[in-house]
Amino acid sequence: MNDWMLAQQATSHAERFKYMQDRFNQSDPTIGWKLLLVAVILGAIFALASILSRLQKRRDEPNKPQPMALFVRVQRKLGLPRLDRLRLWWLVRTRRINNPAALLISAQYFDDAVEGYCQSDGWFGSRLTASSGFAAIRQQLFGSDCS
């Protein structure tokens, strides 16, 4: 009886090995789709980790000062017309003013910048005629009581 069980186990081992061998020899028609799915999942995980890393770096970095952005926002809040904003932007650009919002706060600083701008030569000659446009802007910013 013992021999019979051993024979049956031996047969079942042989069948198992034969079955495993057959499984390894057969090709799986869906293997390409399975590999593509694994690659897409890994790519999505990598992309998500990359995005989260960039967001974390952005949150940890201190905000850089943006003087031109402040200058533009203050001009908009003051209700300056677009042409006047363009003139002031050109003044800041040509005079290379580091803190342009100071022009909108200090009459003396505004006058010094405009004077330096009007005394220099532009592309088309003298800028002396620009002083009338800046006088109107000065009037709007600081009122008539400033001299």
Write down the oligomeric state. single chain
Domain count, please report it.
2
Radius of gyration: 39 Å
Report, as a whole number of angstroms, the end-to-end distance: 122 Å
Strand order of the largest sheet: 1-2
N-to-C SSE string, H for helix and E for strand: HHHHHEEH
Number of strands: 2
Provide the β-strand percentage band: under 5%
Structural class label: mainly alpha
Average pLDDT: 81
Question: Helix content range of the residues, please?
Answer: over 70%
Tally of DSSP helical segments? 6
What's the shape? rod-shaped
Give the uncertain stretches in residue-range form: none
Short synopsis of the structure:
The protein is mostly helical and 147 residues long. The chain has 6 helices and 2 strands, in the order αααααββα.
Give a verbal description of the structure:
The protein has 147 residues and is mainly alpha-helical. The chain is built from six helices and two strands; from the N terminus they run αααααββα. It has a two-stranded antiparallel sheet. Helix 4 packs across helix 5 and helix 5 packs antiparallel against helix 6. The termini are far apart. The relative contact order is 0.07.
